[in-house]
Amino acid sequence: MLTGITASDGIAIAKAYIYKSEAIIISDHRIENVEKELIKLDHAIYETESKLKDLKNETAKKIDEESSLIFDAHIQILLDPQFIAEVKSLISDSKYNASYAYNEVSVKYISMFNQIDDEYLKARTADLKDVSSRVLRNLLGLASNDLSHINEPVILLAEDLTPSDTAQLNMDYVKGIATIMGSRTSHSAIMARSLELPAILGIKGLMKEVNHGDTLIMDSSSGGLIVNPNQETFLFYQNKLMTEEREREELLKLKHQKAVTACGKDVELFANIGSLEDLEGVKKYGGDGIGLFRTEFIFMEHKDFPTEEEQFIIYKQVLDRMDNKTVVIRTLDIGGDKHLPYLKMDEELNPFLGHRAIRLCLEKQEMFKTQLRALLRASIYGKLKIMFPMIATVAEFRAAKNLFNEVKEELLESDYKVSSDIEVGIMVEIPAAALAADVLAKEVDFFSIGTNDLIQYTFAADRMNEKVSYLYQPFNPSLLKLIKMVIDASHKEGKWTGMCGEMAGDILAIPLLLGLGLDEFSMSASGLLRAKRMISQITITEAKKLVNQCFDYESNEAVIALVKGHKFS
Question: How confident is the model at residue 445 (pLDDT cuts 50, 70, 90)?
Fold first, then answer.
């Protein structure tokens, strides 16, 4: 059995399909007609941009809005003015053909990024390679790498899969993914989980041990890939797969049931969304509300700042369609790996720790106030709660809340109707905020813990960096203590705490989060039913005992072993 990192749970049985990207051969011949070559370059860039936009739209529909964000980053790389100017200079001054000139500049930047002692910038090389490959194929008239033609059940094997590759998969036939590279927090892993597609990444020696057409069994719950199994093993997993499919059908029966623990305590199960289209999944799986509506996608889909009226219409529709269920809307969280082409932002060595989210909004106050006006006007159409992202200090929250109050007064003076019971809270994703939770809890109406960022900031480890992926430790006792701090502080002040990071949808983490006193879980809609079933098997008393035991352990692995070994009622 070959083993790797489980990126997405499930069982798959199918033939191996080995995917290898074809090498692009580029000649360095000189040209005479410079103008013709420049036009050729412009056309290739235009074609590439058009395809990337198509991929973004396809990914948003097929997977989700968050997964589609990567293509905005690719378009930014493609249209970088300095990069294009250097390519055109090589064509005009040195008379190189367009493909050779483009490749030279691409190789230069890839080499430069690889030498920089900054893991975020190093990670951009994969994106640059993906974009460059597209442009070069368009310049040379080569067919693009395309996995959509697969027309029989397969488990897809590759060295690595780009977001472009994953977006094109035909889900009727691709039953699983196995790669040599990647980690649980890579783009491929996140997309696989959104697609509910079994995936194992980081399998060493994968291509040496598997041939195209081999029969494979993937059991990602154990991180294992079995090559050409004997009949006994094949039949065992075939029965296991059928059981899993029946289980999915059984889970759907829970859709209309409330999430209740074995001891009778009601638990709120919410969903994370990025667009109106995502509401279909929330209704399909019986979500109690929206725990996180990421509003940055509205801004990213526009060519300029969306107007107050454009935003108002979207917020009103979400509230309307949720039938007075809670909708927590996060104000603009831009920066880090999310950018707006029409908003000029300074280059930063570490953008994830830089001028982003609430920090940017407090500077761009008109932009922020426009969003707050739209939200407040929409508040009368449902049960709205507003959440500020990336809050590090009490002063930041007060500044944002003051703008909220200012906008509210202006609207009331202009005879607009505004709901009188809008709760205003914060995302706890910075350790400083968790440590100051006792002070913040006196000011906010609620907390929502963003574990994706809280984990990477707590352990000073970029969750997208494969080399430090081992430090993505949601079960580490130190992180659990931070979460307990936040929940206890909110309860002391009569407030509530939710969670909207990936940890909230992790079946293994749910017993611990219940024991810690978490009030609301928000996750991908596809995870709601499994979470509901797990909650029904646990009593609060045993969950608390389990948490207390965890604090006696010293590592992420020890806590995982403890929870896995516990038998719930």
Answer: very high
